């Protein structure tokens, strides 16, 4: 094998690795941004519920109404937090699938290159 062919193969392999690393970084960046957005939304819902709680407590006519309102708000917040958790899990699962795809394609290309060299 001549040195030009070896240099070309090393260049191709390096280019492929760099492209894959850039793709992985794009996926990671997008995932972090999406998860941060989900956390921001969850914090907003938590704060909004706190404000509602204070308002309802100040407007409650008696203890029974205040406790009933508290229970309703807790249930509502619980549902919202569960929804945020599911959405975050969806983001992670989507990112995992993309990452797996990039790795599988990269490994497939690597094995193809190795097979071609072996068959020569």
Beta-strand residue percentage: under 5%
Gyration radius over CA: 27 Å
What composes the largest sheet? none
Oligomeric composition of the shown chains: single chain
Number of strands: 0
Shape verdict: rod-shaped
Derived from helix and strand composition plus strand pairing, the structural class reads: mainly alpha
- Overall domain count: 1
Mean pLDDT: 90
Poorly predicted ranges: none
Taken in chain order, the helices and strands follow as HH
Task: Summarize this entry quickly.
By secondary structure, this protein is mostly helical. The chain has helices at about 5-60, 65-120. The chain has one domain (about 5-120).
Structure report:
- This protein has one domain (3-119).
- The chain is mostly helical and 120 residues long.
- The protein is rod-shaped, with a radius of gyration of 27 Å.
- Helices cover 95% and strands 0% of the residues.
- The model has no long low-confidence stretch (mean pLDDT 90).
- Helix 1 packs antiparallel against helix 2 (63-119).
List keywords for this structure.
mainly alpha; 95% helix; 120 residues
Map the helices and strands.
Layout: H1 3-59, H2 63-119
């Amino acid at each position: 094998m001549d040195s030009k062919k070896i240099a070309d193969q090393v260049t191709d392999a390096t280019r492929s690795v760099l492209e894959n690393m850039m793709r992985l970084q794009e996926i990671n960046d997008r995932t972090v941004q999406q998860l941060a957005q989900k956390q921001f939304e969850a914090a907003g819902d938590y704060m909004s519920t706190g404000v509602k709680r204070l308002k309802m407590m100040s407007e409650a006519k008696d203890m029974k109404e205040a406790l009933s309102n508290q229970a309703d708000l807790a249930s509502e917040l619980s549902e919202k937090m569960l929804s945020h958790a599911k959405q975050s899990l969806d983001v992670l699962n989507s990112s995992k699938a993309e990452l797996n795809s990039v790795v599988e394609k990269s490994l497939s290309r690597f094995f193809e290159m190795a097979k071609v060299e072996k068959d020569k």
